[in-house]
User: What shape does this take?
Amino acid sequence: MKFLDLHAQYLTIKREIDSAIAGVIERSDFIMGEQVAQLEEEIAKYCGARFAVSLNSGTDALYVALKALGIGSGDEVIVPSFTYIATAETVALLGATPVFCDIREDTFNINWESAEKVVTRKTKAIIPVHLYGQPADMDEILAFAKKSNLFVVEDAAQAIGATYKDKKVCAIGDVGCLSFFPTKNLGAYGDGGMIVTNNETVAKYAKMWRIHGQSKKYYTDFIGDSSRLDTLQAAILLAKLKHLDGWANARRSKALLYDRLLGTSQIAQPFVAPERTHVYHQYTIRVETQRNELAAFLKRKGIPTMVYYPLPLHQQKAFSNLRSRTTFPISESASECVLSLPLYPELPDSSLQEVAQAIISFKNET
Ligand SMILES: *Cc1c(COP(=O)(O)O)cnc(C)c1O
Assistant: This one.
C-alpha cells in the first residue's frame, strides 16, 4: 500500500494530462504562456475572489503576500506553533518576527484565544493555517484581527476548496496562499503556488514581484524575484482543476468510511467543527498512547503512515533565538500523538478496511 499514489491518479486522467503537456510543447510558450493567466482566472473564480497570481511555490505565496502587505523588519506576525515550517519561515525571511501561539486540541487549528494573548503593538498580521484541509475558526480570527488592526493571511496550502460558512478558503482573509506541490489536493508535476485576494494592490505587487519588480520588460521599479509558475504546470493544473471537487468528495466519503471502521477503537477520529467542510488533505487520528509503536506495527504490515508534524515550530532549532520560556502544551502533545493514515481518491475501500483492521488489532493486543 502507498501513502499517496500520484501515478494512480495520473492513469485516471492520462489523456487530458498528455494532451495538455503536448499542447504546451507544441506552442513552446513555456514561460507566461496562455494557460498561466487562464489558470489564475479559473482559480480566482473557483475561490470566489477577484484576483489570483501564480508563483513558483506556496512558500513564495506566503512570502509575497506578507511583503505586499508591507510586513518587514520590526513587525510581528502571529503563527500557530503546529504547522509546516514555511508558515513561519517566510515571516522570518522578511526580517519580521514570527510569534507563536497554540492550537485547538480537537481540530489542530490555531487557537484564537491563545493568539489574543501574544498580540503586541508590533503585531501586523496573523496567519491561520487550514491544517489537514479543515478551515480554521475564521469568524473569531477576523473579529480579533479587526479589533487589533491585523491583516489576515490564510495559509490554505492544504485546503483548496474547503469552505467556511459557504465561503471558500482564500477568499475570507486579506490574502489566501495556495501550494501546488505534487502531494497537495491540487498538485502540479513540480513546484507551484498562488496568492488569491480581493486586494488589487496586493495582486499588482505580486505580479511585478515575480518578474523582478518590473513594470515593463527591463524596467525594474522595485527589487523582486524570479518566481513564476511555468506554463506546463499551469496546463496540468487546469486539466486537474476540473476534477478537484470530485476528488474532494471521494476523500470525504473515504474519511467517513475510516470514521465508521475505526468507530469504537478508542482512536480519536478527525473532528470537524461546525459550519465548515473538510477536504481531508490528511486523515489524521489522535493516538494518545504508543503512537510510534502503532506506526511501526502498521509499517511491518506494509501500511505506511506519516507524522505531520513531529516537532512544533517553537521548538525548532532554527527558531532557538526566539525561544521564550513559553510552552504550547497542545501543540507539543499533538506532535506526539498525531498519525496520518493513507487517504486519496484512488485508494480502494478494501485498503481502508485493511488499515482499520490493523489498527484495531494493535489496540486489542496492547
Ligand atoms: C505545503 C505547505 C506550504 C508550502 O508550500 P510549498 O509549495 O511546498 O512551498 C506552506 N504551508 C503549509 C501548511 C503547507 O502544507
Observations:
- The chain has a mean pLDDT of 97.
